[in-house]
Amino acid sequence: MSANHLLRENAPISEAGWSFLDREATSRLAVALGARKLVDFHGPLGWEYSATPLGRVEPLAGPQDGLRALRRRVLPLVEVRADFEVSRAELMDIDRGVLDASLPGLDAAALRIAAAENTAVFHGWANAGILGITEATPHEPVPRVEDFNDYPKRVAHAVSVLRQAGIGGPFGLALGPGHYTAVVEATERGGYLLSEHLSTILEGPLVWVPGVTGAVVVSLRGGDFRFEAGQDLSLGYQGHDDDSVHLYLEESFSFLVATPEAAIHLSSAAGRTRGGDAGAAGGEAVPAEDFED
């Protein structure tokens, strides 16, 4: 992959400094890039890769009579960038071998760009031509419950709907931050962890996915959802002044739903609106607003 456009060689950052920043960015992104754990990932295909072929064509007027012309359809990749700063004093400490570097700008940028990617995959990005999973599915959303101890019923119903549509498992559960917190903190009557019960129903993982509203059950059988990375997430250099170095995280990607029936949305409120499910730990119902995503 050509990375010259990242201009890293122009930055006042040592080789050791870049290695440290790359490792820190990777560790933060690995946690937040939840969508990639649940859909097929292809790439990286390079910064120059511009469009995903759709395998379809549309008629095109020929340059003269007696000819038949078709134009191949593609989905252009979108470029996404999150800017941040690192203090030059902190970079000097990194070169000295500091173990507890303070990188709040990187923390925020990593979460911001990961949430944008997750949102595009699950809820779409109209301006980029990306149809999200919850937009594409023909299944009606599973409505919220008043008591979070009933969450397994929602998931079991969602899995049943998918199986009845001919979609095989195992299945994964993408959980928005509010839903994830409620699930991992909850225990059912008898002390059984709610998260373990859900994993048994799904035969697959529960994944924290910032950017997701509510939760989404998706089939993990493969071939249903395709994420294509041109340039995978990389650190680039923008400029610097006496106090700070201006950097960014950047990627290019497209996303395509091949089988709309292979997922179902567990909504946070009635229909497809934003909100929060009820949550409980130890059997007590908690108001829905306490678990907004």
TrEMBL record:
Xref: Pfam families: Linocin_M18
Keyword Cell membrane: no
Statement: the UniProt record of this protein carries the keyword Transcription regulation: no
Family: Belongs to the encapsulin family. Family 1 subfamily.
Gene Ontology annotations for the cellular component aspect, listed alphabetically: encapsulin nanocompartment
UniProt keyword annotations, A-Z: Encapsulin nanocompartment
The protein's name in its UniProt record: Type 1 encapsulin shell protein
Localization in the cell: Encapsulin nanocompartment
Organism the protein comes from: Zafaria cholistanensis
Main location: other
InterPro entries on file: ENCAP (IPR007544), Encapsulin_nc (IPR051429)
Region Disordered, residue ranges: 272-293
